[in-house]
Write a structure and sequence with these properties.
The structure is a single chain. The protein is of the alpha+beta class. It has 3 domains: 29 residues; 129 residues, Elongation Factor Tu (Ef-tu), domain 3, CATH 2.40.30; 57 residues, Membrane-bound Lytic Murein Transglycosylase D, Chain A. 21% of the residues lie in helices and 32% in strands. It contains 5 helices and 13 strands. The strands form 4 sheets. A 7-stranded antiparallel β-sheet has the order 2-1-9-10-11-6-3. The radius of gyration is 29 Å and the shape is elongated. It starts with a helix and ends with a strand. This is LysM domain-containing protein.
């Protein structure tokens, strides 16, 4: 209980300091998000092309999913034959603060609201520089990266980790008269294509062709020929098959390339 009270006290003091001194709380500093190109001369965090989001999103939720391939076996039911991981996706929402916004006040002389342009207002949690315009700086750069399908590094300070990604969708605009630009960014994980060589499948089967028996499925064939049922993809490739269930009894199938 004492630890909880102490933790709340520290958090309260940290928040009070941030508001009074326009500093950052340890929570905000740890949740900062940055984007920069994955390739090229600007592919490092400490670079002029790095885009640090001025206001951290309230939440960041990553979606990890898979594609599952199955086949139906007689007198057995459905059986999974492959599970391939999909590219991760995630969405963030926040806003880019308006630039050079005067401080609003109230005039006791003429009893109306006024804006003092000699004083500039800035959110205490805004970590951006005052010269960074929401449209000219943030939106232009994000739109360029999206249009050019630039592979990016999504650096998430919370766990000192990152994703390689591309911007899938960028929605932005104004909701009020503050001049802030509100946005939603959808990301998709970026992965380089690697050409895998399936020719490593070996077999002791003496014949060049195999003739399946009645009700024999592709997993059984791969296990019999190559000693590994997961080699069914190799069997499909060398025989030009698109569907793993298209096994016809008595038909000649290549055993090796």
């Amino acid at each position: 209980m004492a630890d909880l009270i102490k933790e709340k006290k520290i958090a309260k003091e940290s928040l009070k300091y941030a508001k009074s001194n326009k500093g950052l709380t340890h929570i905000q500093a740890g949740s900062q998000i940055a984007l920069y190109p994955l390739y090229g001369e600007h592919n490092k965090y400490e670079d002029s092309e790095t885009l640090v989001l001025p206001v951290s999103p309230a939440d960041v939720m990553f979606s990890e999913d898979s594609n599952v391939e199955t086949i139906k076996l007689m007198n057995y039911g459905e059986l999974p034959v492959a599970m391939n991981r999909k590219l991760a996706t995630w969405t963030i929402e926040s806003f880019f603060p308006a630039k050079n916004v005067g401080v609003a006040g109230y005039s006791d002389d003429n009893f109306r609201g006024i804006v003092d342009n000699n004083k500039m207002y800035k959110y205490w949690f805004d970590i951006s520089k005052d010269i960074q315009d929401p449209y000219d700086y943030y939106c232009d750069k994000l739109l360029t990266w999206k249009k050019e399908a630039t592979p990016l590094v999504f650096f998430f300070q919370t766990w000192k980790g990152y994703y390689s990604c591309q911007i899938k969708k960028f929605t932005y605009g104004r909701k009020d008269a503050t001049g802030n630009v509100y946005y939603q960014l959808e990301f998709q994980e970026y992965k380089e294509y690697k050409n895998y060589d399936d020719s490593s499948a070996t077999t002791d089967y003496s014949e060049d062709y195999y003739y399946p028996s009645e009700n024999e499925n592709i997993l059984q064939i791969a296990k019999k020929l190559y000693g590994d049922s997961s080699k069914y993809t190799y069997f499909m490739d060398i025989n030009g098959m698109k569907n793993p269930t298209d096994i016809k009894a008595g038909q000649a199938y290549k055993v090796r390339q």
